[in-house]
């Protein structure tokens, strides 16, 4: 689907020179507040352009920092081609990875995809947490959840089915009262859903949408991955994912808690 002229991001800097000759197509996948455009042109590499309004809850600067860190850590992710801001909108231009996201990579079986997801998470979780400068421990994430709730940007219509009809305030009270003790800290992706991992028939291509990557409880990742697998492929593939990851008997209360936390983001 081509975007209309009024939907196209305005000029702000030399980044626009990199866009010459490209056809813009809006990418509607995902829940990011940023607008995402797939850019294609004959004889040129496929790119993605992300555009968001400048504001306290913007994530593109966070994403750029994390992509650079992931790349420096030796793991695959998009290259940053350019980024800019005109004070109204932030923009981030990155290259496209080979293949498709794990929710739609039809060259692979569903089982193959959940096993790739587990392997990709394990690679990320093996990185030493001392090397990661991004803190997403529970205290920081609860504070961020509260700020989003108070700003009125928590989408109550997008809650999981079991929580639909409840208010953000009611869920936040649960978030505080059910907070688990302790944490098994790893470098987490932050949004470990199938669409945020890219693969081709040759294997895993890389991590995308990394704006919430940081040190957090392992269960933050496992909870979102299990929910995404159940949504896309059914409950039957959740256990094979857990087996491949090496967490054969997870704590249901922790899974539920981190799915609850994700309602605010």
UniProtKB/TrEMBL annotation:
Keyword Signal set for record: no
Name of a matching Pfam family: APH
Record-linked InterPro entries: Aminoglycoside_PTrfase, Kan/Strep_kinase, Kinase-like_dom_sf
Residues that hold Mg(2+) according to the record: 196, 209
Catalytic center residues: 191
Enzyme Commission number(s) from the entry: 2.7.1.95
Name of the protein this chain belongs to: Aminoglycoside 3'-phosphotransferase
């Amino acid at each position: 689907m081509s975007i209309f002229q009024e939907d196209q991001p305005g000029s702000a800097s030399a980044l626009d020179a990199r866009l010459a000759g490209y056809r813009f197509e809006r990418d509607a996948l995902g829940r990011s507040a940023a607008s995402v455009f797939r850019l294609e042109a004959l004889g040129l590499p496929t790119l993605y352009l992300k555009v968001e309004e400048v504001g306290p809850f913007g994530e593109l600067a966070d994403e750029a920092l994390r992509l650079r860190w992931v790349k420096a850590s030796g793991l695959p992710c998009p290259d940053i081609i350019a980024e800019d801001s005109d004070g109204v909108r932030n923009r981030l231009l990155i290259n496209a990875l080979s293949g498709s996201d794990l929710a739609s990579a039809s060259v692979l079986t569903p089982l193959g995809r959940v096993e790739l997801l587990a392997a990709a998470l394990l690679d990320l979780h093996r990185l030493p947490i001392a090397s990661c400068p991004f803190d997403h421990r529970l205290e920081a994430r609860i504070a961020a959840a509260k700020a989003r709730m108070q700003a009125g940007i928590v989408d109550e219509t997008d809650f999981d089915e079991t929580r639909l009809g409840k208010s953000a305030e009611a869920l936040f009270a649960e978030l505080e009262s059910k907070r688990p003790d302790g944490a098994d800290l790893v470098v987490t992706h932050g949004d470990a859903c199938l669409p945020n991992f890219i693969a081709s028939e040759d294997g895993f291509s890389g991590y995308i949408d990394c704006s919430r990557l940081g040190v957090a409880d392992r269960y933050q990742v496992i909870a979102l991955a299990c929910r995404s697998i159940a949504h896309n492929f059914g409950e039957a593939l959740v256990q094979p994912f857990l087996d491949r990851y090496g967490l054969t008997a997870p704590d249901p209360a922790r899974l539920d808690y981190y799915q609850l936390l994700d309602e605010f983001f």
